[in-house]
Amino acid sequence: MEKQSKKIAVLILNWNGKELLDRFLPSVLKFSTQAEVIVVDNASVDDSTSYLQNNFPETRIISFEKNLGFAEGYNEALKRVDHEYVVLLNSDVRVTQSWLKAPLEFLEANPIYAACQPKIKDEKAPNMFEYAGASGGYIDALGYPFCRGRIFDALEEDSEQYNTTKDVFWASGAALFVRRNAYLKLGGLDASFFAHQEEIDLCWRFLNQGYKIACVPQSTVYHLGGATLDAAHPRKTFLNFRNNLTMMLKNLPVHALPLILIRMVLDGLAGLKYIGEGRFKHFVAILKAHGSFYARIPDTLKKRGKTKSINDSVQYKKCLLWDYFIKGNKSFQKLRW
Fold it and tell me: 331 vs 150, 185, 212, 216, 229, CA distance in Å?
């Protein structure tokens, strides 16, 4: 095959997602002519690959013999391409005209930035920000993720209030632009996460190595969300709670590690809340998440690399739970950094 000359590749991870490819791939192909579009198939058992070959022959396919999960699937795919920049794009994302232009120009002009994301809005409610990334991600002192445009489950309407390019703590895995060499240098996404919050862990490791992360909202995409694992599924609760604790243990400076104990107490309170709501499977999921976290502590400690205190401009040093539930601050603009 002729060597690929394009500077950027768009990688779409697929697992039994023929319907999503049929719905969303056309926009990607239409508005990504400067990129090579590659579908990474995670051992689908539907007819995704034959459907692609018959209907989108211009799309390159990388196929795996088993489902490697989100993290390892992308890690293996990035080893098989040679582009300078790669976009990790969910299969349920609709892109817009020139969506690649601003993020790519930003990364080209700012080599200290290892990753960035576009503005991510809700495919089901196009005037609203989308949960998975909105206009750039942050975490608070206790490791709770939130976004410009989304705090916990409170989503804001997009009235262009977050249209400035801004340094962030993490960029969303729904549409993650990365420098391929920087990604591979850090080992990529942590495959032990399997799915959920691995992009936050990756961005945290980038920050610990002196790179920066940004949101470039001059580019907009629309994310359906919940296409692989619905938010109401206990498995998602398990992965989010376990992976969040793992991420903190991997990346916090030594002096801040006791915060994990506080976080675990708060996880217990979240479990009691689930019981009060009659969602017993989610309570059990938290118990299992903590058990899995304990069992993985020796391996997680081995993964600790360079750590440092993160700049206050991208990490909220206060407690988001207090701001949200006690003070009632449910929009990003109301937070006092």
Answer: 7, 36, 24, 20, 26
Whole-angstrom Cα distance, residue 56 to residue 217? Answer: 29
- Tokens (6 digits) for 272: 């009691």
Q: Give the tens place of pLDDT for each residue, 2-16.
A: 445 699 999 999 999
Q: In the numeric block, which tokens belong to residue 31?
A: 């508005």
Residue 131 Cα distances to 114, 156, 226, 238, angstroms: 23, 10, 10, 18
State the sign of the Cα–Cα–Cα–Cα dihedral 272, 278, 281, 282.
Answer: negative
Smallest CA-to-CA distance from 21 within 43, 1, 46 is with: 46
* DSSP H or E stretch at residue 321: helix 320-321
Residues of the chain by 3-state class (helix, strand, coil), percent to 5: 40, 20, 40
Q: What is the pTM of this model?
A: 0.94
